[in-house]
Amino acid sequence: MANLIYGTPEFYKEGFSDYLADIDADNPATGENLLKGFYLAIEDWFEYHDKQAREYAALRKRVRQTLGM
Fold first, then answer.
1. Distance from C-alpha of 13 to C-alpha of 20, rounded to nearest angstrom
2. What is the pTM of this model?
3. Phi, psi of 24, deg, nearest 5
4. What three-state secondary structure class fits 68?
5. How far is residue 40's CA from residue 57's CA, in Å, rounded to a whole number?
């Protein structure tokens, strides 16, 4: 990933290429595991952001109550 600018399509292409290189016709479970891992990552990040959003909502509610809004 030398000389790649973070966040560009080319940067992510290199990262995805590393994972895609693991696909093995003699071991089809690898491809399935790649997809499952991707799904688990999405779920984890969703849960994290959902929890954060709920915490912000609780803080907003407290601030509004304190300020009488």
1. 10
2. 0.73
3. -135, 120
4. coil
5. 26
The alpha-carbon radius of gyration of the chain (Å, integer) is: 20
Q: What is the pLDDT of residue 1?
A: 54
Separation between Cα atoms, residue 69 and residue 67, nearest integer Å: 6
Q: Using CA atoms, how far apart are residues 47 and 66, in angstroms rounded to an integer?
A: 29
The per-residue pLDDT for range 12-56, each reduced to its tens digit, is: 999 999 999 999 999 999 999 999 999 999 999 999 999 999 999
Q: Per-domain residue ranges for the chain?
A: 28-69
Q: Are 23 and 34 in contact (CB under 8 A)?
A: yes
pLDDT tens-place string over residues 40-52? 999 999 999 999 9
Q: What is the DSSP letter of 8?
A: S
